[in-house]
Specification:
This protein is an alpha/beta fold and 541 residues long. It folds into three domains: 10-218, Substrate Binding Domain Of Dnak, Chain:A, Domain 2 (Up-down Bundle); 226-350, Rossmann fold (3-Layer(aba) Sandwich); 367-540, Rossmann fold. The chain contains 20 helices and 16 strands. It is globular, with a radius of gyration of 23 Å. The termini are far apart. The structure holds iron/sulfur cluster (SF4) and FE4-S3 cluster. Iron/sulfur cluster binds at residues 3-6, 8-9, 15, 19-21, 23, 71.
Amino acid sequence: MFCFQCEQTAKGTGCDKIGVCGKTPETAAIQDLLVHTMKGFSLVALEAAKHGAKTPEDDHFACQAIFSTLTNVDFDPERFTKLMQEAETRMAAMKEKITAKGGNTSFPQYKGSYKGLNTAALIAEGEKTSFKAELDANVDITSLRQLLIYGIKGVAAYADHAAILGKTDQAVYDFLYEGMAATLDNTLGVNELVGLVLKCGEINLKAMELLDAGNTGTYGHPVPTSVPLGTKKGKAILVSGHDLKDMYELLKQTEGKGINIYTHGEMLPTHAYPELKKFSHFFGHYGTAWQNQAKEFDEFPGAILMTTNCIQKPKETYKDHIFTTGLVGWPGVEHIASKDFSPVIKKALDMPGFAEDKAGASVMVGFARNTVLGVADKVIEGVKSKAIRHFFLVGGCDGAKPGRNYYTEFVEKVPKDCMILTLACGKFRFFDKQLGDIGGIPRLLDVGQCNDAYSAVQIAVALAGAFECGVNDLPLSFILSWYEQKAVAILLTLLFLGIKDIRLGPSLPAFLSPNVIDVLVKNFNIMPIKTADEDLKAILG
Ligand code: SF4
Ligand code: SF3
């Protein structure tokens, strides 16, 4: 195996024996084969589009298949076998229709036919598809191709979330195919691939806009909400991941059953949505970010539901009461495909739950674009009167590396006349800090999940509009942390928007070659984080 798609990749270069995430060589092989197959699928889909030979289901399938290979989503080879079989069936159906219309079904740049192969045979085929040799032969082209594929994985994630809520845009699917197919095109050089990478950022903005419309259109605009961090006596279910519809379905199905619902990780901001917070048994938040789940899940006395990323290898102590849904999967963990959460509910009722109320602190969520722009006048006045000196967007993924303490220290050291916007699971480094307010506006504003990056972009764009300047001219700095490929897609969006001087950590992606990093530095002045003191001094002077 060889995988370097995420930030925790082994030795900072690549996982080649087993994934630091727990991905086995077998799962890696079959995932690689699926990514390879989706390149072929994309060639067929692009041709099919010309002949009316493709269905909306084909598009949604492509999105889900690609999303499944994102870090910490699905570790189950059997589930990948099903996706492989479906990919082959759909490709064959498209080709048949293309042939009937007199179109082209010969794609010499793609080799592979895996119809009817079982899991073991697919793994054996997958082992032949590693891009490592390609990487050694031409590091810059391979680096850009992988950057494009990882960006597309992020887009696929957002597009899938949006599609679940009924929001789709053909332009997003078209680009998934264009981008995946481009990675098979040997005529494309560095400039063309850089262009596609930036287009990926543009399309990701569209996908995030769709998701924002899906979330706010279905569940209302988030409103400032205080979320308890304590626990309540009684039966309990803990929900992790990012999927709002799963949360809504579970809340509905648990109503009146005497079970309290808790959020974990990226589910925290869901407390702020009016259509979710209306449920009286939607109690509070338990635990922190994904990388602490083994310890936190172990101590939770109820059932656990994982929606989307990020799942880690479940400990034996809770393997019998953790469930997956949507695209998440772990071998041997019960998967709920139907959205009938009865097994989760039954398990929660069979478990002890919390024996007593335990008071805890609370945190505020719900500062998405509607709330923040609702007090835009106050914010603008604050900047003009110099009560607010600077804004920092400190956001992105969390992870296990010790270097991530930078973000805690950074937030602690931000001067009191500066505001901090945050989003995604990186916030758990500082989410419960009492940072006070400026003129009644909290200094720490939680915009939401990584899925809400669109909201943060809208806030920045609206502020730039109010000050009649560009986003780069605002007193605003981006201090980002990354881990998986949704963060890659968001970064590409920021680059597409022309945002400069982004500080990125805890380390730069292993898949960026020195020359590709050079291009990013020259064009966008993107830079690695240093120390909190050095970076604050460089920004504030
Ligand atoms: Fe390694 Fe990350 Fe790939 Fe997992 S996803 S195998 S940790 S690089
Ligand atoms: Fe976090 Fe996985 Fe990226 Fe949603 S939950 S931001 S890492």
